[in-house]
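hey all, quick one before standup. I had two proteins in the batch that finished overnight and I want to keep them in one place so we stop losing track of which output belongs to which input. First protein below, input sequence then structure tokens straight from the run.
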Amino acid sequence: MLNASPSGFCVEKPQPNYKRDGIFIVSLILIVLVLELASGTDNTVTMQTIPKEKSQPATAALAPAPPAPVAPVAPGELIQFDTPTGWAKSANASPMTTFALDLPGGATVSAIPLPAAIAGTTEIVNLWRQQVGLGAIGADEAAKTSQPLIIGGYDGALYDFAGEKPIEGQTKPPRIVTATVTLGQVAWFFKLAGSADVIEAQLVTFKQFLSGLKFQPGASAIDFENLMREAQRSAQAAPPPPPPVQGKPTWTVPARWEEKAPTSMRLGNFTAGNGKAEITVMTFPGEVGGLLANVNRWRGQSGLPAVDAAGLAGVTQQIIVSGTPATLVEAVGEKTASYSVFHPVGDATWFYKISGPSAAVTPENAAFRAFLESIQFPK
């Protein structure tokens, strides 16, 4: 038997390679979401609970959880398994993964624990679909995408999404197969990702592998705050990614905004509306999930329904920031609102966002637009 253990974290420019897209990209986007919602201006990360929508599909009945241990257990000691022939420990795992394995043909298998409320949500389903080049679907259709599967002796669910054509940088259509099982407060995600032909050849072995997993007592009670801290610490210890070629932009801060100290994630950090509205400027290498996934994330934060690719034009506005195209997304809900901008610049994506209670955000619309107009990247 092998005790899976987390690997070191390597911060690098994401490539359009589904070999690493799998659960790593899911965890990356969730990390960004948590960091974006974190309060304060220091580097402390607080775990946010993401409520499940009432209309979301139920994947499987809540499994009886193994007894939780008295003392915390390291994530790498939570699952035991036999490694199938030809599979090997991956060197490209993120600190959020409990284990990651490389398979013949360039496929990967990885495991990550997340809060149970995330399991089965339409946002997660659409994230997997987006990674293989498929469009977003609604809650009713998402409810029909899972099939039951026994995972380590517990009732789980299996999702299988195959792309229709190769994605950018690839020569074969991609395929992602994800299995989930809920143990107490923890949803475990196991993802098989690679080209469609390789996945087909590994699918039976993957299901057998999942059936043979042995969850240890702490698998139902993960300390997510500590897990996030460890992930952040690993990221800070790693060599920093190269800065965007264009460099950091300049901007003019509206008079009534209060400037806060920048953090490792927030290059621009401000508040407005007596501190109730937060304004941030952040950048990440690559497309960070793409426009559709980010639009639906912002809409979900404001309590608005997701849209598909055909509905993007109705909820976005094309603008110009520093002479280049950008997309403005107004997500104004009954209680929460945000104005967010998705701005590809070279090999990076810049995000400008104001968010908070609707009553604090909407009065800042004009100031936010003036802020956007003031942004200038070095020539």
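OK second protein, same deal, sequence then tokens:
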Amino acid sequence: MMSTMRTTFFLLLPAILFSACGTGQPTGRSITAHVAGGAGRTLYLEKFSANQPTRIDSVKLDGDGKGTLRPPVMPLDFYAVSMGENDRLILILDSTESVAFEAAADHLSDPESVTGSAHSMLMHDLFKEMKTYSTERQELVGRINADRNDSAAIASIERLNTDFYTRCRDFVTKHTGSPAVLAAVQNLNIQNDLALFQQVRDSLGKTIPRSEYYVAFRDQVSRMEQQLAAMKAQEEQMARLDNLIPVGSEAPDFAQSAPDGKNLSLSSLRGKVVLIDFWASWCKPCRMENPNVKRVYERFKGKGFEILGVSLDKDKNAWTGAIAQDGLPWKHVSDLAFWNNAAAQQYGVSSIPYTVLVDRDGKVLAKNLRGPALEEKLAEVLK
């Protein structure tokens, strides 16, 4: 499983740029390999671009499975060593380091040792922790699958997940400037740890600015920043709209056409407790909520309760058809202006279904109540 995790990490980061110099001159630096079971086989040094491997150098291993790769000048980045198969040893290399590793031919992705490259050593230490975590987690998942009531296993996996998250976070915090952290941040929640992701982006922008993996990570952080900014703006907008007509204020009057073409105003219902129900025939959540609204209407209609449905439809046949289909016996109006419905704009409606509960004196009692909350409020008001 960990081999798959490492291979997936290396392959699935989006590819943007490949700048290795496959025909350049050797630097004198080297990658010394000792591959058990690899005698006579060819070892390749690869760089991925657009998820496709490009071979930079190769060497035929001797009878002891030993050989030395002497790559050309390379920028600091992620590289892979393979035997032409999917099992790959991931290394973080540049042209200033001589690296040595020992691994089995059928487990290149899980080497016995990596020395000479501080970034690679750091990354493979992390991979060992990931392997331990994965093994322990698989065991606990097996116990839980066998017995869903195994509270000890459930508690253990929660502690294990929390501890692993903490260790990954500590790893990233401690080694922010190392490309190795790109393997660790995949285990973190970018929304919860955005500030840390931003630190990594800024640090790696100085060390591996042209790496396709850095570019992918940078773009991931940028997308989350944009999403969070949009969410914040939406929340602020909803708060502003919500404050247009605060609870306790006078409910603004409006008048629109009923299905029979006659104008009907909110003020004409003064003396009753009125639920202004903003909805539309095309709104699935609204249609799903209608049976609950009907039940509430039937319970309280004899106690001075009325509903004024305000439709955000733009097609009269669709509007009146939905009223008939859902069997909605209360009063209805619309100006057939879709989201530009005048009453909806007046009341700051940004999504539907949306309700405003108005008391007998025309004051706003509550907003956006549905289901049990609406029923409880009406039971309180209409005693």
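Flagging for whoever picks this up: The domain at 2-117 is CATH 2.60.40.1120 (Immunoglobulin-like). Residues 285 and 353 are 7 Å apart (CA to CA).
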